[in-house]
UniProtKB/TrEMBL annotation:
Pathway: Glycan biosynthesis; trehalose biosynthesis
Assigned EC number: 3.1.3.12
InterPro entries linked: HAD-like_sf, HAD-SF_hydro_IIB, HAD_sf, OTSB-like, Trehalose_PPase
GO biological process, alphabetically ordered: trehalose biosynthetic process
Top-level taxon of origin: Eukaryota
Protein name: Trehalose 6-phosphate phosphatase
Amino acid sequence: MTPTLESWTSVRHRLSEQNKILLALDFDGTLSEITERPEDAVLREGNAPLLEALGRKPNIIIGILSGRALNDVSGRVGVPGLIYGGNHGLEIRGPGLDYLHPAAAAAIPAISDAAERLVADLADIPGALVESKVLTLTAHYRLTPPQYHDSIAMIFLDTVGPLLATGACRVTAAKMAMELRPAVDWHKGYALEMIRFQLASDAFPVYFGDDETDEDAYDAAQSVGGIGIYVGPPSTETRAICRLDSPAAVSAALADLLALT
Ligand SMILES: O=P(O)(O)OC[C@H]1O[C@H](O[C@H]2O[C@H](CO)[C@@H](O)[C@H](O)[C@H]2O)[C@H](O)[C@@H](O)[C@@H]1O
């Protein structure tokens, strides 16, 4: 267990003192509840008007950084005028920003081929789902009975093995899922830095997330004096300096932020 250093009360006080804020958030498990099937995840009720109202504030820039494909996450959030980063920041779009990681684009054929092979290779594993996201892919096992978890990992690694051996791709973990990404040194932390550098270099960054892949974004925010906020139980190790219990607490924090800015 990691002791978090700051309460939301202290964070909200620090936020109230800032001239400009870069408010960045993850989607699954942060703005939406975790669902058994990835396609069932929706923005929590009430978050759309909160994000709209916060986005209208002249001193707040909002970025959504997700492991989902950009079109998928922007469609699920559905609030215009925000910065959306998909595939862990490999693609970023919004007012004043249109970015696609060049090396990631080169890996598209390999990722798409791996997704097709995984669908076939995992066909006999109950509950296994393959989410093809063009620049990356995810093999989900949330619906797979525990006795198959070792098999799914072995099949996944066997199928993508040649791409790992050539150095073209790398494997990362997500909640009840394994992901295949291009082997480029890029993650949500770099994406957060890019948004800040391009659009709001004087803004105070605060990042909300719930998964392993969000740790890089907490680091990026905190390295310039900002705040990382982990969403989840206190038993999880995190480098974020603040913790909130759940996506419901995130919604409450957004409402609080709207009231104080
Ligand atoms: O960075 P995020 O926006 O949190 O995306 C991370 C992954 O989220 C999704 O999978 C996770 O959420 C699903 C829906 O709640 C859940 O069923 C799954 O077990 C989780 O891993 C998404 O499907 C992935 O593509 C993202 O990489």
